[in-house]
Amino acid sequence: MDSHIMTTAASRYCVNRQTRLSESEKHTSCQQNSSVLSDGPAAKCLGVTSPISLAQPTQSDLKLTKLLEETLRAMDMFESDEERHKRMEVLSKVNNLVKIWIRDVSVKKNIPESLIEKVGGKVYTFGSYRLGINAKGADIDTLCVAPRHVDRLDFFSTFYDILRNEADVKDIRAIEDAFVPVIKMTFDGIEMDILFARLALQEIPDELDLREESLLKNLDLKCIRSLNGCRVTDEILHLVPNRDSFRMTLRAVKLWAKKKGIYSNALGFLGGVSWAMLVARVCQLYPNTAPATLVHKFFFVFSKWDWPQPVLLKQTQESTKGLNFPVWDPRVNISDRFHLMPIITPAYPQQNSAYNVTMSTRTIMVEEFVKGLEVTSRILELKETWTTLFKPSDFFQKYKHYIVLVAKALSPDHHVEWVGLVESKIRILVGNLERNHLIKLAHINPDAFPPLTESEGEFVSKWFIGLMFTKSEGVNINLTYDIQNFTDIDGAGS
């Protein structure tokens, strides 16, 4: 990144912590002006600025919203009652396993019998499931919360063994050295991620509210990160003016992002929580607007957003409990000044959920925002239907040159682990390619493709990177060095 971008990111944040919005959003902050606009009734101000509009939806808006919902249902963005019931059953089983496991650990660690029955333990959900926007076949993000005498080593040893021996559990793997350590598995056909956090409490009651900041006292960073998913999800739900409108809009934006190949935090695009926060910000700016119009406003706002200006759902603030964890602040943290697309989580300690974004991925996403604005404008004019918005990306027709990254393994277990490792490093390859002065854009397709023929092997995954060069004629471009740097990281071949 050039120094101009770095300086801009820092100076904008330092000059005004209330965060100036894009040119389309110049209006007074909530703290300075609590008056309402003339096109609607008074409403509670959520966010760092006053709403742009308090207008109520028209009959046309409501009709388009109904058509949007019908389109989303036809594209499996709503789960059936049967699937919802099955998810609840699976969560209940895992929760019971956690309670039994914590009880057994308590016995082994000589916890007094009078306390063993009260130590508790609980599985919390976060992400799409907690937000209430589960689609058919979606996974469940969960957090195992344990009392202070149960540690992460117990979680990745004895609890992992309990899960591995469950008949309903398949494809289980532990990723202990991840930024946020996790156990991944499929339980009775439902994919699950389970994080772990040990609280400095003697017991974990079922009604415990993880939004309480005092729970973070005396915790290590890995526990803080694990808790952050639940805390951020709950905070988002408390910061949107209308949860039903938020959910419908987010379903549409998530489907659009996946269809356009820009839904992946690991590969430098945006993950679920980032998309949720962008949608939540638009809901704050248009609190009474129907989902159909909110989808259009989403593209309107972020096609014009002045990145790297941060997106905030509420003012950043110091800990109210005297905690001193690192938070996103480019005035203090030099590394934060290099972030290209900061989207700041609303729960303490505030972090940039989009820190993986690169110059290429940001360029690609902004281009898609602009296209989305054009399409939704035509939809509101009744010149297009919602299915137009959700057309798949033309990735394989878009570029003249592609790099194919291949990950091979000898067994299914090794393949699952190897693919996870390679995928977590792909953005490093994209970064290497971006630094090549002859490459204008490196576009990674988030989908991993299986082998086309048996001769390629059984346990094979492939990723494609589209390349756009600054000059394509009369220039001999050698990418061996850029690719070799990547394959040397883990001794991996491509």
Structural features:
8 strands, 494 residues, 15 helices, disordered N terminus, globular, alpha+beta
What does this entry show, briefly?
With about 500 residues, the protein is α+β, with helices and mostly antiparallel strands. It has helices at about 5-15, 60-75, 80-110, 115, 125-130, 150-165, 220-240, 245-260, 270-285, 290-305, 360-380, 385-390, 395-400, 410-435, 480-485; strands at about 120-125, 140-145, 170-175, 180-185, 190-200, 400-410, 440-445, 460-470. The chain is globular.
Please give a structural write-up.
The chain is an alpha+beta fold and 494 residues long. 41% of the residues lie in helices and 12% in strands. The protein has helices at 3-15, 59-74, 81-108, 113-116, 127-131, 152-164, 221-238, 243-259, 272-285, 291-303, 359-380, 386-389, 395-398, 412-434, 480-487; strands at residues 122-126, 140-146, 169-175, 182-187, 190-198, 401-408, 439-444, 460-469. It is globular.
